[in-house]
Amino acid sequence: MKFCEGHILVEFMCAESIEGMESTDNTEKGTKVSLGEIPDTLELKNIVYHLRSVIAFVTPASCTGIGHYIAYCRRFDGQWEAYNDLCAKVVSKKPAHCVIPHVLIFTI
Q1: Is the full-model pTM beyond 0.90?
Q2: What is the pLDDT of residues 42-94, one digit of tens each?
Q3: CA distances from 86 to 16, 21, 51, 58, 69 (A)
Q4: How far is CA 74 from the centre of its chain?
Q5: Contact 71/82 with Cβ under 8 angstroms?
Q6: Cβ neighbours of 84 (radius 10 Å)
Q7: CA–CA distance from 102 to each of 14, 15, 46, 47, 88 (Å)?
Q8: Which domain holds residue 85?
């Protein structure tokens, strides 16, 4: 876990390490969970941080591929948006959308 003023970055290799998250699929590169299963808040030293973004890994389509990362941003109204440099536009996602999270970003 890394601290910046007003931000916390949580990096992990296995989603099962986060309390309350239930894996829906184990893969070689990580564990899939739905965006809605990721905790909305994190409290440290009496400061509440809110989940703002998930950087997720997309496994390669073939054994020769290298995979890809997509940023999922949670808006103040709770709606999720996917930012993928392989797509021309931002795409809305439902909380049930499954990802392999690698970094969680929380802010005050």
Answers
A1: no
A2: 998 888 999 999 999 887 777 777 778 899 999 989 899 999 988 889 999 99
A3: 28, 28, 24, 12, 10
A4: 10
A5: yes
A6: 16
A7: 8, 8, 25, 23, 23
A8: 2-107
The tally of domains found in the chain comes to 1
Q: How confident is the model at residue 2 (pLDDT cuts 50, 70, 90)?
A: low
Q: What is the DSSP string of the chain?
A: -EEETTEEEEE-S-GGGSTT---SEEETTEEEEEGGGS-SEEEETTEEEEEEEEEEEE--SSTT---EEEEEEE-TTS-EEEE-TTSSS-EEE-TT-EEEEEEEEEE-
Q: pLDDT tens for residues 7-32?
A: 787 886 554 444 444 444 444 456 78
Positive or negative, the CA dihedral 18, 22, 26, 32 is negative
Residue type, 16: E
